[in-house]
User: Fold these one by one.
Assistant:
Number 1:
Amino acid sequence: MKKDLDFINDHFGPVTQLHKMIEESGELKEASDEFHYALVIEDDPDEIERKRVHMIEEMADTVIMIKQNERNFCKPGELKAMMQMKIKRTKERIKNGYY
């Protein structure tokens, strides 16, 4: 998969892929909102499932763009370190009653 992502990334370039990540992030937000609404309000299992699958599709698009932009703009290990810091902070907040 990495080879394929590199091929696509090299074809379009970092600026285009950054813009694409912005676009895909917006689409993920919309799909997540729709799925959340369906879980809370809908009583049609088929509609809930359709919205769930659509959200997963947008998650995949967004993760692809994140992986490409990690290559373009992050130092090695930088994203992983930031993720670890964020997870640690959230756990601390949970333990301290912040959430």
Number 2:
Amino acid sequence: MRGMKSVAVAGVLACMIGAARSDELVGTIDAINTTRNTISVGDKIFAVSPQNTVGPRIGDLRRGDRVKIFYASGRVRAKTRFNAIRIEKQGG
């Protein structure tokens, strides 16, 4: 019985780990909302910390900047905001 519980717990943990992953996107910033600390790139909205220590801060970004965003993704619902893990400006 104890072994079956261990297998069940391991299965649940594997599902939880599989649900959270990271992806990357390269695109142009379409909109910036400094009140909500979000940027829009294509059809995705990214939450960006104003104290970002990995890459530019939201105040350093401009509409039209080309960026590469590494973000946490998982189960996606309508109007999901993705958490930007790291942002890199592309080009000059």
Number 3:
Amino acid sequence: MKQEVTEYYKKKGFVTVYVFVNNESRKMVQLIKPDGTRFTTSYAKYLYTSHYQCDVNKDEHIDHINGDKTDDRIENLQKISGTYNRQKDHVIKEMLLLTCPVCGKEFLFEKRNLNSHPNPCCSRKCGGIKSHWKTD
């Protein structure tokens, strides 16, 4: 969908802007100069740079504060480092403190793995010993 170019991008020489949705359901923009040069960026970055009249360098990202990547309201956008943006979405693993049934040693075990390993051991060595136990 064609839109009016913001003043910030008019100063940079762009005359046309098209907004479209990519395959991840995110809005993108394609900016076009009179000579046909094209530049594509996220709609969030386009809005942020237009509103704050600033460039975003390659080491920075425009982040959605509430985590909804389709919520492109200016108050939901912030500039952060690319490193932080990649790290902030990692889920913290929930760990359990268990006692090994073979040697009695305490060890940490990921809670999500309890379904597939209902009675885990602290090591492969202890696991091998336990697998030879007779169960009557």
Number 4:
Amino acid sequence: MKLSNKVYDILKWVALVALPALTVFYGVVGATCNIPYTQEVLTIAVAFDTMLGTMLGISANKYNKQ
């Protein structure tokens, strides 16, 4: 499946900027306010962001080889 440049740029921004910022924010608020399952939510969010970043990196690598 090919991604358009616009979709790739948006996903890259989400993976590199938005998700890490939201994850840190949620972690700080969750720890401060004793929100249940904060650690579990953070683990899942970081795993998702890592997966997204890896998939985008592979996509970019394949695109650049063409």
